[in-house]
Amino acid sequence: MPNPATTPQTLAQKLIAHAASRSHVIPGEIVTCKVDLAMFHDSSGPRRLAPMLAELGTTIWDKRKVVLVIDHYVPEADDEARRIVRIARHWARDLALPHVYDGQGICHVVVPQHGHIRPGLFCVGADSHSPTGGAFGAYMFGIGSTEMLGVLVSGETWVRVPRTIFMRWSGRLGDGVTAKDMMLSMIGRFGMNGGQYQAVEFCGEAVAAMPINERMTLANMSAELGAQVGLVAPDEVTRAWLAACGVSEVETARWHSDEDATGVRHNFDASTLAPQVALPHSPSNSRPITDLEPTLVQVAYIGACTGAKLDDLRAAARIVAGYRIARGVRLLIAPASVRDREAAEREGIMRMLVDAGAELLPSACGVCAGYGSSIPDGATVISSTARNFQGRMGSVTAQVFLGSPYTVAASALRGRITDPREVLWHGEAGAR
Amino acid sequence: MTAPTHRVWRVGADIDTDALAPGAWMKYSVDIIAQHCLETLRPEFALEVQRGDVVVAGPGFGIGSSREQAAAALVHLGVAAVIAPSFSGLFFRNAFNVGLLLLTCRDAEQIVEGERIAFDARAGHVRRADGALLACEPIPEFLLQMVDAGGLLPQLRRRFARRDATNDSTEKR
């Protein structure tokens, strides 16, 4: 019988053990963890939590550990949206919540950009893309509003210690191939529940070489892989990015899986990966773009926590700079956060995108969530978002394809779903 | 074991949260969302489902969003349990938190539309109309208690009522 205290541990086990004040934990056991950060938004948060807290006659265990982001119903499209946003603003003001981001962009991007997430933390978010926090070496996962209520009154929640599925990507991604393409290929191979609510850890040379924005895309779409968390071991890239966000004390050395830790291991070669596209109506319906039948598009959407961060905007600009998008196509761009948009403006990227014919939308969840506005009925859409379930983006009759920001931009240029490498390699000169 | 009176509604694999609680209705309360539950797949479902009915699905039930209204809509409509070979992990947590029993049953897809079944969550099985028993994965006792209580909110209500009562008696002393 091996001694559990000396058995090698995965990053997920170490993070949970830390939050549970234990020396070690064993996959399968259920433990109670202290929560370092509880994040919610206008849809999952105040409108649901405020009445329940009032009913219980209690309040938040530690307001400093709570972050509210108003991103789902802004800008307010109708009276119901105005009511939901008003509840959030009044509640935040009445409770004097110290961390509120209103109209600053999408929670999964805004919260790390303001320094709330760092390696070693145990975090919950009332949104399914909360695993994004795993890009920083935090154990972060999504919960519903009622479970969030439980966290707010106790500062704790439970987890069943997961096994770890190691996704090791050797080699380097080719030009125009991204984290989004890696995720679509993995989701296509393993399915939307392939993660079995275990921990996925992304590793290998290709991951180590990635900027934080791309690691965030991996962690973000762990939700579509059905994992509880999607982790990347923090390193100097993490430290430098967080330092720029004002987080000075970042511990990275202890937050990694031991070399011989037990887990399921899958190996991939990044250098041979082609851009991927997911067909309607599931992210698991993915294939290499080179296998796709010719597909005309009317709408190209670059948005969401998944696909409109600064590096995504840079990718789109590289494709369209100096060209005009195809006649009859709308290229809609909703930068993931105000900070990302402002940085893109400073780099001249927003100008390039608008000059190419892009329409700029507010930094919010927008049509990705289908909560307010909608893509047009019957349209064929190529989108940099995470999900293309039927009706997800507001129209039951729309056909939504998913791709990387490179692919979305290239498709907008040519009016059909296009391998972005054609544009990167050959330019647009011969295309029309 | 419940009496074999739970009428079965069969749906397929990978039923997502947009099918259970469509985004366009998310700004409203759960009674309104529930009217649109599964409408893209079974338009008659919300109108005809009766208290005590069960939903039997293929693998991957509840994938997608963290919106717990996906589970709460089924509770609102009176669904007694969802039985499937696998569930989204996030949906699984939400379901128990809002008082919806989920039974993970490898052989769930043997069960047919309209069949009358019984189930025993603690014993861990489903009994089909012909008497055949299908095994279900064990569920931690604290989650079964949560469902018995009607979800986490009623449990918290009880906990805080007790705390208030204790505080009151302390003050009197």
List the helices and strands and how they pair.
The complex is a heterodimer of chains A (432) and B (173).
Chain A: H1 11-19, E1 30-34, E2 37-41, H2 46-56, E3 66-70, H3 79-95, E4 100-102, H4 107-113, E5 122-125, E6 139-142, H5 145-154, E7 156-160, E8 164-170, H6 179-190, E9 199-203, H7 205-208, H8 212-220, E10 229-231, H9 236-244, E11 264-269, E12 276-278, E13 286-288, E14 299-302, H10 304-307, H11 310-320, E15 330-333, H12 338-346, H13 349-355, E16 359-360, H14 366-369, E17 380-383, E18 399-402, H15 405-414, H16 420-426
Helix pairs in contact in A: 2-5, 6-8, 11-13, 11-15
Chain B: E1 6-10, H1 17-20, H2 30-34, H3 45-48, E2 54-56, H4 69-76, E3 81-84, H5 89-97, E4 101-104, E5 116-120, E6 125-127, E7 133-135, H6 141-149, H7 152-172
Parallel strand pairs in B: 1-2, 2-3, 3-4
Antiparallel strand pairs in B: 1-5, 5-6, 6-7
The assigned CATH architecture of chain B is Alpha-Beta Barrel
Number of helices of chain A: 16
Low-pLDDT stretches of chain B: none
- Measured as a percent range, the helix fraction of chain B is 25-40%
How many runs of DSSP E, i.e. beta strands of chain B? 7
Main sheet specs of chain A: 5 strands, parallel
The CATH C-level class name of the largest domain in chain A: Alpha Beta
Quaternary class = heterodimer
Number of domains of chain A: 2
CATH topology of chain B: Aconitase, domain 4
Q: What is the C-alpha radius of gyration of chain B, as a whole number of Å?
A: 17 Å
* Major β-sheet annotation of chain B: 7 strands, mixed
Helix content of chain A: 25-40%
Which chains have the largest interface? A-B, 49 and 38 residues
Gyration radius over CA of chain A: 21 Å
Q: Note the gap between the termini of chain A.
A: 69 Å
Distance between the amino and carboxyl termini of chain B:
47 Å
Low-confidence stretches of chain A: none
CATH superfamily of chain B: Aconitase, domain 4
Number of helices of chain B: 7
Q: Report the count of strand segments of chain A.
A: 18
